[in-house]
Amino acid sequence: MSLTNGKVVSSEPLGPTEGKWIKLVKLTYNDYKNQTRTWESAERTTRAKGSGVDGVGILAILEKPSGPEILLQKQFRPPLNQIAIELPAGLVDEGESVQEAAVRELKEETGFVGTVSEMSPIMFNDPGMTNTNTAICSVKIDTSLPENQDPKPSLEEDEFIETFTTPLATLYAECKKLEAQGYAIDARVGTFAQGIELTKRLNL
Q: 139 to each of 36, 159, 161, how far by Cα in Å?
């Protein structure tokens, strides 16, 4: 089985009651001139009751003798009809905190066991189109622990994910290289990589 086998074979409009994961809504609002306007928006149907956060992304850095490396994933994404380069991530389940979701998703998708050291502000992925949001948790992975010596993911039946690491020092160049090879770069990965590059150029 290979990620390259993934491809979209058809596309059609989604009926208003067909959506399992998302729904389309028409919003009526008053703008800054107090004029009434409408807006089309997509919303997740999966946000846990009582939670203000849809999902979590996991920023996991592995310390290696050659320098720190970031844990990334390759996953086919049908809306793009491409394999995307992403952070490990997932939805927050009902009754769990964002930090708990980060630790759970890290173990399920990569096999690694880690602890959350920091959580970002809640971030909105595309506020002109959707209210979907996420938080990024920085996770420490102690590679000396026995459970992290030979990590094995526990993927769901419909998940097929390849995990890999790449040096932080050359992450921006690696994103450019992967894009040239036909991969789609997730905005969180690309923004993080560009941030690292800017700190170098601006000597911050």
A: 45, 22, 19
